[in-house]
Specification:
The structure is a single chain. This protein is of the alpha/beta class and about 300 residues long. The protein is about 35% helix and about 30% strand. It folds into two domains: about 160 residues, Rossmann fold, CATH 3.40.50.620; about 120 residues, Elongation Factor Tu (Ef-tu), domain 3, CATH 2.40.30. The chain is built from ten helices and 14 strands. Strands 1-4-3-2-5-6 form a six-stranded parallel β-sheet, with helices on both faces. Helix 6 links the parallel strand 5 and strand 6. It is elongated, with a radius of gyration of 22 Å.
């Protein structure tokens, strides 16, 4: 898959495109991209995803403190797995935010990206103050000679499939609902770094992930952990470790039946089931007993689950 961060005039192949933040890459996104791939094949054009970094909301509404569902690396990996051949990542700044809808279409979609056909969700908004919509695109399509196809929004069990709903589900501890809307288990990817070795002294060594601590979920989870091409069972703690007076939010993973050095390796952690909330124990021995119980419960859940 080709990643383009700087697009210039007349350098790109004609394409079928879709535009969006694609944070989470949920079932609705998958439906849109699946249709786009078919359209691109029918038109013999390059299937292209246009996205933004940083996410527009972080600039337009900084007070919200948006919690990302996917890192940019995860987003690219998923798009490639879904069959996308080209991703154009536009730097979202004040200059881009101030462009009128028509100016964005002409300068970026037509002149730079060489878009011939556009597929977006029926609620798509764009341009300065989000003044552009599907009607704007239809009007522009006549002037600039490109096709436009709005895609209906996906519903799942009476819930709108959206990144906002997935965030809400995760924050409320509804991991099952979030997974259903995503079409896969919620996951994170990070590089293993050295911690304080406390897990090893307790008899349960953990891999500490060098990622911004996940603020969407907290607690202890049964997990699948991918290391290279291999997948292992695991128990993952997201929190501050109150029993040892921890202050910093950490992500620690205990891999079951794994022997080897993980330092420096990038691993993927899929969260299948929440075992319990993180809590403070009276002493270290009580903590060790609970960890052993967590492992037994995780094994029971993972025995009937399938890694994806």
């Amino acid at each position: 898959m080709k990643l383009i961060r700087h697009c210039h005039l007349a350098e790109m192949s004609p394409c079928v495109a879709t535009i969006g933040n694609f944070d989470g890459l949920h079932l609705g996104h998958f439906q849109l991209i699946e249709k786009m791939l078919k359209r691109a094949q029918a038109l013999s054009l390059l299937p292209t995803v246009i996205t933004f970094e940083p996410l527009p909301q972080t600039l337009l509404r900084p007070e919200i403190q948006l919690l990302r569902l996917l890192s940019f690396r995860q987003k690219l990996r998923l798009l490639e797995n879904w069959g996308i051949k080209q991703v154009v990542c536009l730097r979202f700044n004040q200059k881009l935010a101030r462009l009128s809808p028509l100016a964005f279409i002409e300068e970026y979609l037509i002149n730079r990206i060489n878009m011939r056909y556009l597929m977006v969700g029926e609620d798509f908004r764009f341009g300065h103050r989000q003044e552009g919509n599907i009607e704007t695109l239809y009007q522009a399509s006549t002037r600039f000679n490109f096709g436009i196809e709005p895609i209906s929004l996906l519903q799942a069990k009476e819930l709108k499939v959206s990144s906002t709903q997935i965030r809400r589900s995760l924050l409320e501890g509804e991991l099952k609902t979030a997974s259903a809307l995503l079409g896969r288990h919620y996951s994170i990817i990070g590089r293993v770094i050295k911690g304080d070795q406390r897990g090893r002294t307790l008899g349960f060594p953990t891999a500490n992930l060098a990622v911004k601590a996940d603020n969407l979920i907290k607690g202890v989870f049964a997990s699948w952990v991918q290391v290279g091409e291999e997948v292992y069972q695991g128990v993952t703690n997201v929190g501050t470790r109150p029993t040892v007076d921890g202050k910093k939010r950490l992500i620690e993973v205990h891999l079951l039946d794994y022997a080897g050095d993980l330092y420096g390796k990038r691993i993927a952690v899929e969260f299948l089931h929440k075992l319990r909330d993180e809590k403070r124990f009276e002493n270290i021995e009580a903590l060790k007993q609970q960890i052993a119980q967590d492992i037994l419960q995780a094994k029971e859940w993972l025995a009937v689950s399938v890694a994806v």
